[in-house]
Amino acid sequence: MDSTVITDAISKQEWLEPVAQGMQGAVSGAYAAGGETGKKVENFLNGVWLGHPLHPAVVYVPLGAWTASSVLDVMEAGGNEAVGPGADAAVAVGLVGALASAVTGLTQWHPLEARSTRRVGATHALLNVTATGLFAASLVVRKRGNRPLGRALGWLGCAIVSGSAYLGGSLAYEQKIGVDHAPRENLPRDFVPVLPEAELAENQMKRVDAGGIPVLLARRNGRVFALAESCAHLGGPLSEGALEDGCVRCPWHGSKFRLEDGQVVDGPSTYPQPRFETRVQGGQIEVRAPEIPQNGE
């Protein structure tokens, strides 16, 4: 089956649009209301400190715990009552992990604007909320002694969260959410002339081409800096962004990178921008990829 059939069907559901917009607005508003602190929290939950999105790293906690609980429930239903406490503990661990998965997933998703991404993401979230509710109910009825109902609710929750995981994979692998969009291969290893020096004024940015790779040039305090021009977050054109205190901010979703080394200052990007070495030779600005250290040097 074509893997896009399901996501295409979801993206056509008009009723999801106000739901998705409401969810995104609530998350964006909460971070905006927090000011600098809100931005630091958002950066942390995006995974800026980690160097890649945090959501995929924590989502395995509820998935793994609830899978384990379902297996143990099968064993208990077959007569092995000794595994019951382990199944209950796995359900509880999954509930804690689900909270971390939810906040990191919403943080990663809320800036996105494409209709399909917005609606598929909203469906993914709604399914996860439903599954989490079922597992919470499962734990409650287990503790009240109705273990057959608790197991049934857990199995239903596991089925729903598995379907949600399929949509999460679609967001990552089909729609490239959370994937590095900056060019990192076939970068020029020798200096390539890209622009006459006189055409780059102080505090100005320009998009140039270096052997087929779009490059952002910027001049600040007399120095020329060069980064990959396509934003690592979703490929936004950095040359159409803004210079801010030795950094460039992407015009699409606000990711901010240091000109000096391409490191992320603000998300949602978690990947640094590839940096190029620059020099001026014969009145031409030339760039090349940094030399790769040899033998660990």
Give an account of the 3D structure:
It is built from 7 helices and 10 strands. It has 297 residues and is of the alpha+beta class. It has 2 domains: 4-173; 192-288, Rieske Iron-sulfur Protein, CATH 2.102.10.10. The strands form 2 sheets. A 6-stranded antiparallel β-sheet has the order 1-10-9-4-3-2, with no helix packed on it. A 4-stranded antiparallel β-sheet has the order 5-6-7-8. Strand 3 and strand 4 form a beta hairpin. The protein is elongated and about 85 Å long.
Features:
single chain; 297 residues; alpha+beta; 2 domains; 6-stranded antiparallel β-sheet; 4-stranded antiparallel β-sheet; 7 helices; 10 strands; 16% strand
Computed CA radius of gyration, to the nearest angstrom = 24 Å
- Briefly note the structural class of the backbone: alpha+beta
Share of residues in helices? 40-55%
Q: Kindly report the average pLDDT value.
A: 93
Number of domains: 2
Shape: elongated
- Total helices: the number is 7
Largest pleated sheet = 6 strands, antiparallel
The percentage of residues in β strands lies in 15-25%
The parts where pLDDT drops under 50 for at least 5 residues are none
The gist of it:
The chain is α+β, with helices and mostly antiparallel strands and 297 residues long.
Layout of helices and strands, plus pairs?
Elements: H1 4-11, H2 16-33, H3 35-46, H4 55-77, H5 84-109, H6 115-143, H7 147-173, E1 192-196, E2 205-210, E3 213-220, E4 223-228, E5 242-244, E6 247-249, E7 256-258, E8 264-266, E9 275-281, E10 284-288
Antiparallel strand pairs: 1-10, 2-3, 3-4, 4-9, 5-6, 6-7, 7-8, 9-10
Helix pairs in contact: 1-6, 2-3, 2-6, 4-5, 4-7, 5-6, 6-7
